[in-house]
Amino acid sequence: MTARDELPVKDSKTRTQSGYIGKSEPRANAKRLLQGRGSFIDDLRFPRLAHVAFLRSPHAHAKIKSMDFSKARAAPGVIGVFDGRAVAEYCSPWIGVLGHLKGIKSPPQYPLAIERACWQGEAVAAVVAETRAQAEDAVELVAAEWDPLPAVIDMHESLSGKVVIHPEFEDNICFSRQIDNGEVDAAFKNADVVVEESYSFGRHTGVCLEGRAILADYNAGEHMLTVHHATQAPHMMQDIFSKHLNLPEANVRVICRDIGGAYGIKVHVYPDEMCTAALSIMLRRPVKFVADRLESFLSDIHAREHKVTVRLAATKDGEILAFDLDDLTAIGPYSVYPRTSGIEGNQVVNLTGGPYKHKHYRASLNVVFTNKNVTCQYRAVGHPIAVALTEGIVDLAAQKLGMDPAEFRRRNMIPDDAYPYTGAAGMKYEVLTHHQCLDKLLSLMDYKGLRAEQAELRKKGVYRGIGLAAMIEVTNPSPAFYGVGGARISAQDGATLRLEPTGMLTVLSSVTEQGQGTEGIFAQIAATVVGVTMDKVKVITGDTSTTPYGGGTWASRGAGIGGEAVLQAGKALRSNILDIAAAILNVDKADLDIFSNEVIDLASGESKLPLAELGRVAYFRPDTLPMKFQSELMVTRHYTPREYGFTFTNGIQASLVEVDVETGFVKLLKHWCVEDCGTVINPLLVDEQIRGGVVQGIGAALFEECHYSEDGQLQNATMADYLVPMSGEMPDIVCGHVESKTRTSELGAKGVGEAGTAGAPGAVMNAINDALSSLGARVTTMPFTPERVLDALGKK
Amino acid sequence: MDHSLPLTLTVNGTRVTSRVEPRTHLIDFLRDTAGLTGSHIGCEHGVCGACTVRVDGLIVRGCLTLAVQCEGKTVDTIEGLSDSGELAELQQAFHERNALQCGYCTPGMLVAALDLVKSEPDASRERIREHLSGNYCRCTGYQAIVDAIETVLAMRRTTAKAAGARP
Ligand code: FES
Ligand code: FES
Q1: Which of A133, A516, A727 lies nearest to residue B142, judging by beta carbons?
Q2: What CA–CA distance (Å, rounded) separates A680 from A750?
Q3: CA A429 to CA A646: how far, in whole Å?
Q4: Is the predicted pLDDT of residue A340 greater than 60, yes or no?
């Protein structure tokens, strides 16, 4: 299982090259970015381009008494000023609910708030002008009168329902869910050891370096809307623009060029973006909106903000019997469309305790509305919370039992030969490798050596800590994730491969690229399967009018789902190429193979026909082919994962920290991650996905939090005040892999994009607590700022 | 009311003459007037480094510098530094090491890295991390960037040694 087997993409009797799969090929599409010659949306230049800026609510909750646009309309360069009612005539509202999240509710949401704003930063008026500066100047001239309403900021207050935010509902509960697989109380009663702890996770956000960006270009002559959009899911957005702007699907084209970071931030429907598209139709000209940094903090989705109490029951031999948890999370005033804001909490209750073989599980979830910015799915959705609270309580139990945390985990992890396996929370795992990953991690980091060093240093007053965090991760989601709930979000993806006359290979895929390396790995797969060299392959993504239909990039699905579609299309194209070669050469197809841009004789390896010559004949001299023969040098294949709801992956991370007990500062010394994403298509890219993800997770653990005042004002909406990880504080990160291929696809790849973010916060938390353990202190409120560490040490 | 002022400067070796509003930042002038969109905007308040360009040989934040401050000066951006070959080694090392994902931070990162490579040929890994501490990258986690710069520094030292050893 651990060896990198050759891919079973060709018959065993064929002469295959191992190809490019598993090789660290640099990405061809990185070159333009290295010269500053990418095309991000704000780089596009259009004739008659208008710019929109928004007036945003200064209150967390307020009635809009009146807005006077007369001064703004008269300002230089202003093309138009619009309120919510005006835009609503062109764009219908939406409701962020899904059928499979039973009971979830949310009120209709409009592009611009009408009558009432529900968070500070909600857009209430749009000013369109010749330049962005003019639009911003004119926003200042809108005279708005407000009637402030009571704002619900705290999640417990929201749950109490004393003040109900939306008059159409009886309470503030958006969604709730209970899981109980039975006999949990009995398990706790019979346990030798019970531990309980509460964890709190700060509300943070994605901080993409490029703000959200959209340039909508309506052509009245064709009744056609072309949207240049920084989105991860162009087909989903095409469907949404079509539906809410009332245009035929074919009259909407969504194009994604370069995107400056996404991480889940750019996969949702944003009111200001919908408004921009509507304005383009209203004004019959291209309109652009790029969120500036303040707007990004106020209106990009936030995430996390959970408070969880978890209990664990174990025997004195160190066998975990049960987990029991209660999660409360606050999502802002609306459930975000179309994925809903119930998914993160849902993931927490699905994933807690995931690596372990306990039999009893109970979880309770409440998702409540508040008057803060909305939250929704951001990289690793729910995983960082589930992993941290699971691994935090597991460490606490180990401590109470006097067991080494690595050994305690080993005793409780699901055995590597137990698969397929259904966990206590009801999740089905096809094949996981917790034990192999644990072993590999411990040797990679020299766990024993580090423990010895830690003990030595402790004697000298140096507080080092080692933290482990095992994890499971949802990847390659089937339609069970969104589709079954009624969301028009594709779980399948497609790939089209075309052999060009000169023997080049064009690949069109519905998966999108935000720098993960999608295009690079698809080129590797296509080149390998068809039998051409990498320099012959050109990959095109991100255009609804040219690529096959598909879901795009989210939930660690691009490689596993989109990659399999490329592989299948490659196999079909290869077969078609050999049909043509057999016709030209007048030999049996079974005696031929393709290798390095040439059709070769299978037995001898002798070159028979360059693909460039085959292409020439097929396209320009088909008259020389047999009368009834038609060559097909373009094929499309699709792939949907079906057998499992999700193709789970697993891994484990470790963090080594040093805590300065005088100042509360945490210094990250090193970080390790061993994970199993099945087939590793490109080790370089996989490791960089993990490292980038780990650093985002570290941000959550140590720095990042959106601070709201009691009246719902975001207090740190600048990059100087909201701290993100910078290079100086980040450690080197060591990656290792175990490869258990998924059997649900021929490619065998599972996802990896979120693994780093999923496990890092838990590992860092456990490392800090390990460092503090001899001082009897623990931290459980993220982010672990120096102040909170000192607080835990009783030094504040 | 037109408050615009005349401005003449050299951008990537070419003399550019224009009129600008006094409030126009250098980054907006470069992107909107000069059409050089390779330098990016990430925060507009001097924290992220996406707008890093070179003015008279020194790196500056394009979002904290006014265009009119650059009267008579020489400005180099990612486009010019690419075409002149000045960044070639770093670009190749970044490419091979995959020291970029989305690439939005990359132009600023490269211009900042070039500054270090030129001024501190012996910079340690720690110094590299420190020097880049004003350049935010959300994608990579920084390690690949540090590796790439380390590679270039080592390469340059080897070349310098070889050159020095020659009779
Ligand atoms: S845009 Fe200039 S430092 Fe961020
Ligand atoms: S590569 Fe995306 S921000 Fe650096």
Answers
A1: A727
A2: 9
A3: 8
A4: yes
What token pair was written down for A344? Answer: 């993160």
Q: A25: alpha, beta or left, given left = phi > 0 and alpha = psi -120 to 50?
A: beta
Second CATH level (architecture) for the domain B5-81:
Roll (3.10)
> What are the Cα distances from residue A17, in Å, to A7, A40, A182, A761, B29?
10, 37, 53, 41, 52
Q: Where are the alpha helices (DSSP H) in A734-785?
A: 755-772
Give tens-digit pLDDT for A61-119. 999 999 999 999 999 999 999 999 999 999 999 999 999 999 999 999 999 999 999 99
Question: How close B91 comes to chain A (CA, Å)?
Answer: 6
Which residues of chain B neighbour A693 with C-beta distances below 8 Å?
Answer: 141
Structure-token pair, residue A311: 């209990």
Tokens at A248, concatenated: 């035929």
pLDDT digits (tens, 9 = 90+) for A543-552: 999 999 999 9
Looking at residue A85, its pLDDT comes to 98
Expressed in angstroms, the distance from the first to the final Cα of chain B is 67
Task: Assess contact for A359 and A452: CB atoms under 8 A.
Answer: no
Sequence-separated (6 or more) residues with CB below 8 Å from residue B82: A34, A35, A36, A37, B88, B91
User: Residue A194 forms beta bridges with which residues?
Assistant: A313
Kind plus residue range of the DSSP H or E element containing A501: none
Q: Could you tell me the residue ranges of all domains in chain B?
A: 5-81, 87-162
User: Which residues in A369-401 belong to E strands, given as ranges?
Assistant: none
Provide the percentage of residues in chain A whose pLDDT is more than 90: 97
Mean pLDDT of the A123-145 span: 98
3-state helix, strand, coil in chain A (%, to 5): 30, 25, 45
- Ligand 1 contact via B42 beta carbon (within 6 Å): yes
Ranges of beta strands (E only) in B56-154 are 58-61, 74-76
For the CA of B62, the closest atom of ligand 1 is: 2
User: What pLDDT was estimated at residue A9?
Assistant: 46
- First vs last C-alpha separation in chain A: 52
Give bridge partners of residue A129 from the DSSP assignment: A51, A78
Do residues B81 and A8 make contact, with C-beta atoms less than 8 angstroms apart? no
Pick the CATH number of B87-162 from 1.10.150.120, 1.20.1070.10, 3.20.20.20, 2.60.40.2000: 1.10.150.120
Atom 4 of ligand 2: nearest residue by CA position: B137
- The answer to whether residues A668 and A659 touch, using CB atoms and an 8 Å cutoff, is no
At residue B1 the predicted structure's pLDDT band, cuts being 50, 70 and 90, is: low
Q: How confident is the model at residue A15 (pLDDT cuts 50, 70, 90)?
A: very low
Q: Residue range A380-385: average pLDDT?
A: 97
Per-residue b or e along A85-116, where b marks 16 or more CB atoms closer than 10 Å to that residue's CB: ebbbebbebbebbbebbeebbbbebbbbbbeb
- Gyration radius (Cα) of chain B, Å: 17
* Rounded CA separation B100/B110 (Å): 10
Query: Does the pLDDT at position A5 exceed 70?
Result: no
What's the pLDDT band for B164 if we cut at 50, 70, 90?
confident
How far apart are alpha carbons B57 and B65 in whole angstroms? 15
Q: Which of A635, A769, A647, A752 is nearest to A701 (CA)?
A: A769
Q: Which two tokens stand for residue B79?
A: 């486009």
Taken in order of first residue, the domains within chain A and their CATH numbers are 3-38+492-639 (3.30.365.10), 41-149+229-279 (3.90.1170.50), 302-479+643-793 (3.30.365.10)
pLDDT recorded at residue A286: 98
Name residues 311-350 of chain A within 8 A of B (Cβ): none
pLDDT at A471 over 90: yes
Amino acid at site A278: A
Per-residue pLDDT at A467 exceeds 80: yes
Predicted model pTM: 0.96
Residues of B in contact with A263 (CB under 8 A): 138
